[in-house]
Specification:
- The chain contains six helices and nine strands.
- It is an alpha/beta fold and 215 residues long.
- It binds S-adenosyl-L-homocysteine.
Amino acid sequence: MIPDWAVERRRMVDTQLKRRGIRDPRVLAAMGDIPREDFVPIESRVSAYSDAPVNIGYHQTISQPYMTALMAECLELNGTERVLEIGAGSGYAAAVLGALAREVVTVEIVPELAALARSNLSRTGREANIRVIEGDGGLGYPPESPYDAISVAAAAPEVPAALMEQLRDPGYLTIPVGTLDDQQLRVIRKHAGRVQWRIATLCRFVPLRGGEGWN
Ligand code: SAH
């Protein structure tokens, strides 16, 4: 039997997001609207709304819904921003960010996943304000910089310098920083010429590859 996706989605928003403290009504509305089942492989669709990451192939995952919500909420988007995402994966978080901001550039290092993200975003009618770029996101994407917000969906040993440079003042950057097994989700704020950061949660993301990550 095919699950009622709308029911599953509403339950996910209530039990995984609201109950854990996600408050931004725009984040809750976006995740209550976007068909996450269209961003997981067909054989994993029954797990589309489970409280965990799901494999999307190429040793990569679609993040746990709560993590996508938390990262988006920490960026404090109001709809006017240009956002850079590193690690498109299957495109789900880009779709969420696209619903919250003016435009999104998302960089993906695995060519097959860049293609998958592009096709998922166009199939769900979300490609108008989202561009998928194939490349090493550790270097950011200089042609469109600066960005009002940057969301990094893979864990790095340090915050890549190029990303700090491409972040506008004022602006927010979220990134998991730590070892391969344990990281802190850092929320970095550039404001009035200063940089401050806090830890939003402890986490475990797939590793950032390329020059700024692990190979
Ligand atoms: N944003 C996704 C999460 C994908 S997992 C979501 O919607 O849930 C992280 C992704 O980062 C993987 O697809 C991986 O291939 C990609 N990645 C890893 N290192 C990268 C790099 N240096 N540049 C761009 N993408 C990278």
